[in-house]
Amino acid sequence: MAKIGTRCVHAGYSPKKGEPRQLPIIQSTTFKYETSDQMGRLFDLEDSGYFYTRLQNPTVDAVAAQLCDLEGGVGAILTSSGQAANLFAVINIAGAGDHVIAANNIYGGTFNLLGVTLPKFGIGITFLKADASNEEIEAAIRPNTKLVFGETISNPGVEVFDIERWAAVAHKNGLPLIIDNTFATPCLCRPFEWGADIVTHSTTKFIDGHGVSVGGAVVDSGNFPWDRYSGKFPGLTTPDASYHGLTYTKKFGKAAYIVKCTTHLMRDLGSMQSPQNAFYLHLGLQTLHLRMARHSESALKVAKWLEQCPDVAWVRYPGLESDPHHALALKYCPDGCSGVLCFGLKGGRGFDKRFLDALKLTTIETHVADCHTCVLHPASHTHRQLSDEQLREAGIAPDLIRFSVGLEDPEDIIEDLKQALQCAKRA
Ligand code: PLP
Prior knowledge:
The protein contains 17 helices and 12 strands.
């Protein structure tokens, strides 16, 4: 198999003679057929073919195939956002009366989805620390537990998830492990190689990489034996009345999970990605290997500089030897730990504010993980309604500054930090 950089450039789309070199944007909601029977067979899932872009579109499919190739899966779908990807990944196998387990350091939007919104639909949740022991994980598993969820590198705490260990515990108990691989991307970590069963992405981040399109993805490893645990995953292993009694595992084998995601969830809930946005992702994926290497290299330089800076109270970046997750980073992300790091300053809230206001090259954004260096102080921005104590309970240090190192020259990024600290001290 070709190396990952080559696959970034070529996977998903191979034009034949006389076809466009770059992936065409098929901007069409629907597709033409010649006989009524042809169309009927599509709706029975007897034939494959495009009929309506809410379910599938050639541009979107090519990019899904490109990402699927990079992750090493059997099938993938693109969604309208990362939130939609995580929602689909969970509700494809969990419904009212079921229960899921997730690491408590995951992205706030996913935390809220699992902790507040899905419980309203009858799906229970237990959050565990990412470093919970195997015994603690097993103690949280109930007869109605359907899956376990974590992030490769957590947002915003940049902690590395021990995928292999969690996968082993999940599998021992007949559960799939879903990993949100947004920050690492398949260029830095491929969770299926460590036992994860499903991977999700907010492609809005590094995969797009230029801050132009909100999107998400779900990728299926094809490895989880859904029908081994009789009755646990009835949506996949028993007849689906809405497709004339078809059983996904019987009809689609290893691709059962991802086919159901499209033919059932995408059909009923929408949330597809537009062909135009998929095209932007295609461009992003073609340079992902180069960008992730540069993001990681520059972030390590910035983290090392912050580590020795007297105004800095603490720095977290798994690429630093001093980081508590450095050993996990060497195992799961040996080629780099992405562009995101976080740190705290010694001067207190007022100092933090003056520092942020004094940054020139770095911009204040709720976004993270694209070519522009950007910064966010959750306590003053995304989580400003919470007290310091509530912030700590949510696993966010009140002084945490999330810093996303872009593709500018790292020396300029460090100069910007230096001058902003000087300004904050003078004020
Ligand atoms: N997962 C992670 C790790 C994220 O960082 C985000 C957004 O920041 C999401 C999911 C949600 O993605 P989106 O904003 O594309 O809906």
